[in-house]
Amino acid sequence: MVGKAKNVDYSSVPTTAELESNGNQNKYTVNRKPNSGVTLSKLTLALMALGALLLIALAVGLTILLYPHCGDAAPEAFTHAVQPVAERLPTNLAPIHYRLQIIPFLTEKNFTTSGAVAITFKVNKETDKIVLNIFDMEIDKESVKIKRINSTDHISVTDQQFNDVSQTYTIALEETLQKDDEYDVEMKFTGHLRDNMQGFYRSQYDDPKTNTQKYMASTQFSPIDARRAFPCFDEPSFKAKFTISVGRPSTMSSISNMPKRSTDTMLEKTNWEWDHYAETPLMSTYLIAFVVSDLTAYRYNNSTKTLFTVHTRMKSADQIKLIIDLSPKLLEYYESYFNIKFPLPKIDLVGVPDFGFNAMENWGLITFREVTMLFDENSATIEDKKNTVAVLAHEVAHQWFGNLVTPAWWNDLWLKEGFSNFMCSYAIPKIYPSWNYMDEFVLDETYQAFRFDYFKSSRPITLEVVSTDNIRQMFDSISYSKGASVIRMLSHIVGENVFKQGLIQYLNQYQYSNANHDQLWSAVETNIKSENKLETTIKEVMDSWILQAGFPVVTAVRNGTTGEVHLSQKRFLLTKEPANKTLWWVPISYASDLKPHLDDTKPKLWIRNVPEITAVIEANHWWLLNLQQTGYYIVNYDEHNWRRLTESIIIFPPTTRVQLISDSMDLARANLLDYDIPLKMLTNLAVQDKDISFVTHRAALDKVSFIRNMLISSPIYKKFEDFIFRIFDNAFTKVDFNDLPYDEYLVQRIRKLITKWACTKTESKCTNTAQILFRKWIENPVKDKIRPNIQEVVFCTSIREGGETEWDLLYNYYTKSNSIYEKNILLDSLGCSQKPWILNRYLDFILKNNTHIRKQDSSRVFKSVANNPVGYSLAFTYLRSNWKQLNNHFGSAFSIVSKMVAELPNYMNTRFQLAELESFKNANINDLGTSSQSLDRVIETVKSNIEWMDHSYNSIDKWLSDQAQYYGLRKTTKNSLNGPNTEL
Ligand SMILES: *[C@@H]1O[C@H](CO)[C@@H](O)[C@H](O)[C@H]1NC(C)=O
Ligand SMILES: *[C@@H]1O[C@H](CO)[C@@H](O)[C@H](O)[C@H]1NC(C)=O
Ligand SMILES: [Zn+2]
Hints:
By secondary structure, the chain is α+β, with helices and mostly antiparallel strands. The protein has 31 helices and 30 strands. The structure holds 2-acetamido-2-deoxy-beta-D-glucopyranose (NAG) (2 copies) and zinc ion (ZN). Residues 622-943 form the ERAP1-like C-terminal domain. Its EC number is 3.4.11.-.
């Protein structure tokens, strides 16, 4: 054994023999503390807390929702339990057609709307009331009229009530509406064009030509805000056809989902016109959209039948080139993949200056945040470009997954979001083969989802939701990234062809209608040839992944003589938890040095919903499970195999290296593996990999960041920093600042990634160069302009090393910059200051109506301060002191405050900080809104950080001291880094 010879205490690392003699995965837990058990006082406290919560809930007559009970862990009260329970709409009535007329008053600056809607609906079950959704609008009670279709006799209305909790308007009738009959309900209403980026809302921007402020009105209805714009049955399964007319001043223009059929002058108002739009196909309310603006339209022809038009205030045709090129290519790709033509005649693409999400897939009218839609070669970074491409590919995929076939309810949001993320990974490599886009999939999706799923507070992909806050919280990495990851897993289980046929069947079967996950499973199932049937159903396998939170660690211990492998599964959690009995259907693919077919991802065995199995794997040297991490889980091996994999790391392709680094680092972080393994692996790789592969370095540095954050204010930080700078010396010194516009995509990504790291150290060549570039730029802003890819590192480093002068200078520059990309980089960099007073002054900009920072961007201010080791506690104090104001300011729609909360725990690892967080949570228990899940995750993260300090701080300290002689000698003896391994 390595450690013993080196005087390091590895006594807690089990030997291979120990592992093999006892298959219990718990044995491979290093440095385990004796189990303290739950003391009575803690239990009592927990019960008291639960009791108190129940009392509060009962007192106000509300219902407590319990989180789905997993294994034998105690059920936990969901923190948004204390929310009023909203109700779904009754299903007695089904809308068939909407006739909507709406006028936004922008130029008058009273920012209201005036509208009329007539809804034809069918009665499924007789009733004497009509219940539909409205919110933040006034109904003209006199105007409400109901009649049987084709009849002139009105049915009398006896009562009209608005319910604030379920956001419904109930119209009580004198007569009963008869089953199977059709009726019309019509009403007039006044709505509001707020600046909250929800419903039909206003956005404003400067017009440089006239030097005035301009307003436009645009929509964001997803998920539940169509009800703010017009009365409607605002649930995705109430599909209907819509005939829309939009009123506007004759100087402005409008667009909607469908092409314009005609324009009339408005009789009541001079210089106003009505635009009348063609009737839509059957669709859900959340996909309706209309825009009234002065934006410039760029129409262009392409090979597809679909007409594309880009609408933007940016006058530069350069900036829309990327989206103009890509949109038809993506549309054609999906049309041919799904074998279903895009059903609408056109797609409008609109850049909206104020926009809550990245983009919204409204059918035929995709809206974007400007910085996402436009791409300016001269001021955008390579990551901006990737983002634009990925978001567009996602939104276009939605035209099928979501728009044509819509999830029946928000519990299955992943059926559209997970799929659209997944489909990007098919479409983008077709357009940009050199990007190796698929290599990043596990980093962007699977590991992104792990960040939520590491914790007990995570949730299943499919989750029953009713309240508005819970619906909004579904738009998280579990729906998007875990959704995409389990879809990828399915495609590797059944094979690409069966998978594709299944999707095509699903889309054809449910087009213009709705579906749930069971219907997807059976569409895939029926396409599996009988000879290839699994031992069970797709439903049984996949339900284990979508109906349960978390993911397993598969522990694999092989007997070197017999080749027999003992495989067991257990939920992977970063915090120590009582035994958890969640089980999955785990597909196992494998390879070994004897059969190194790393792309043979079809499962060779299954852990069939049982805790453990045994199998035989032939290998002489190394062996590997879960090839290309197509299964949504991580693998722990016996020490013997870990050592072999560590030695051989360089022979594996980048995706396998990423997986080995990530799995071993995660296991070490959870105290299931000694840090000796991942740190040696990193060392071997960093030193031997002369090529600098982007994904490998990204994964490695990402995992190192966690350790860095934990140690950053500890006495051993310098030792750790020295180690990192020595092993990554090759990359850190090789990559320079000479960014060129024609550099390849991956070269640009590597430059951005590596320089950011190399400059974290004050006394480094990187920091020095960054400061020189900054000074040159100040003296000569035009000649020595800094290329976008290196702007962030140059600005952040110079702000960090500088003082008030540098800060004021950069902020001033921010207020004058016209580039939306540069503005974001500047906001991120201004948080790098080391001066608390500067950081606090900066935080104050969030709520002080700062005319220079858009609401949509001001959370960047918070994020940049929270990600600064000097700033994070200031950020927490700020959030605590301004909790109510922040929630009022940002509202709940885009989880902006929840994203701020999520930034809190990066550097927190003390019991004191945990207590502070818990008292913050308790003090605001009824006001957590859409931040509740986020805060629970933060608290769990800090708990796991504290545990990490307990179990790993000393061992990392020792490890670094022990290795010092090896990395110290690195420059003279090339192979010395492998020194410790040679003893194996
Ligand atoms: C807003 O202004 C328009 C146009 O002047 C007017 O017709 C409308 O009634 C006003 N709305 C409100 C609520 O005052
Ligand atoms: C209503 O009248 C229209 C036009 O006369 C006719 O096409 C339609 O079938 C009628 N609908 C019903 C439900 O009677
Ligand atoms: Zn989406």
